[in-house]
Hints:
Layout: H1 15-19, E1 27-29, E2 35-38, E3 42-46, E4 55-60, E5 64-71, E6 74-78, E7 84-88, E8 101-107, E9 111-114, E10 123-127, E11 132-139, E12 142-147, E13 150-155, E14 159-167, E15 185-189, E16 193-196, E17 205-209, E18 214-221, E19 224-228, E20 234-238, E21 242-243, E22 261-266, H2 284-301, E23 305-308, H3 320-328, E24 332-339, E25 350-354, H4 361-369, E26 378-383, H5 387-390, E27 396-403, H6 407-413, H7 416-435
Parallel strand pairs: 22-23, 22-24, 24-27, 25-26
Antiparallel strand pairs: 1-2, 2-5, 3-4, 5-6, 6-7, 8-11, 8-14, 9-10, 11-12, 12-13, 15-18, 15-21, 16-17, 18-19, 19-20, 25-27
Amino acid sequence: MKKIGQLKKWPLVVLVALLFGVGVATTSVMANTQYMTVKADTVNVRLGPGLAYSIMGQVKSGNELSIIGAKNSWYQVRLAGNKIGWVASWLVDQSEAATSQAKVATVNQPVNVREYASQNAKQLGSLNAGDSVKVVYQEGAWTQIAYNTTAAWITSSSVQLTGQTTNLAQPAQTALATEKSAPALKVTTNTMTNLRNAAGINAPSVEKLDKGTELTVSKQQDDWYAVTAPDGKNGYVASWTVSAPNDGQTQKAATKLSEATIVLDPGHGGSDTGAIANDGTDYEKTYTLKTANLVANALRAAGANVIMTRTTDTFVDLAPRPNTANNAHADAFISFHFDSSPSKNSASGITTYYYDSKKDLALAKSVNSAFSGLPLENRGVAFGNFEVLRDNKQPAILNEMGYINNDKDFRQIKDPSYQSKIATDIVNGLNAYFKAGNHQ
């Protein structure tokens, strides 16, 4: 995706917050640090870097958030309980966040109104030449406007500022849900395990942990847990050497996503390139990893425990992939792939595969049904005799999210906004799956 230029700091940028029930909010970034202190009464935290993403929670004035990333004028922050979310970076300048005025502009040509700043984003409506709009702010080629009680995007070339300003009505504020402290994550070693001083199999061992040792997890780094042992020593253990929550017959299955352990499987990797795009230089392995990483971020932001079968461009054989889910007693396993047809540009669309109708079908239907608004045809669910499904004892599905050797599909596959939409839809699908009580 084209990198968006520096955000124009208008006094009206806070109106985005007003439109979305944040209230008159600001945050300030401490100079030369990686922390942000909330100055507003409340600030919305979203599942991804954009207003199109669902609100995962709110933070109150005085909370200090660590900044772990930035994308498209949004900060990725770490919340209590090791959850990850996103806050708008344009709420950082306190002096410019004290007005509720918008700039008036006139539409100079017919233009589609989009859910977020991408031509591939869902169309919310359209405007005609001569229509008047209230501009919230602009980012390079895209302008955000107040639209039907929400905020939406149109191309900057389609509007002309009039020099006038107008007021935006502040929406009625809804009562904040009472925050509940998440219990500390506990895992138990399922074999004699090394407690290491860093996340990696080559890191020095702090001590040996006996099988059955209960550990308190403070955070997860790729496939490693940062833990505290019963004797107070801190270190890292490999996720495949411990049993995560909801993993035994004596524990109840997850009833919501925040209780669940989800294994994500980016297909192929390393010497196994997977299918190849028509340009001959783009590989399936690249986009399965990019998509799975976005899904992982969204799931962690929703409170789920996420384990990846690979986090870099490395080769992983087929057998270890389902074994990762089996060893973790995962609540769901999702494998990511992009299809390929015998002839270029001869097939299109997305498909969700399952193997065991009793174990997998409900998961396949819930996730596939959540793929709403994607620009590619949804071909539904189908039986698939794949090893990562066949050898999986946990509920497992495989998503083919488009045909990489179809030029139309590939334009979507490589678009970060398409990958982000997949992430949002999968979170929604898993929420529906657990809410329906399908996981036993």
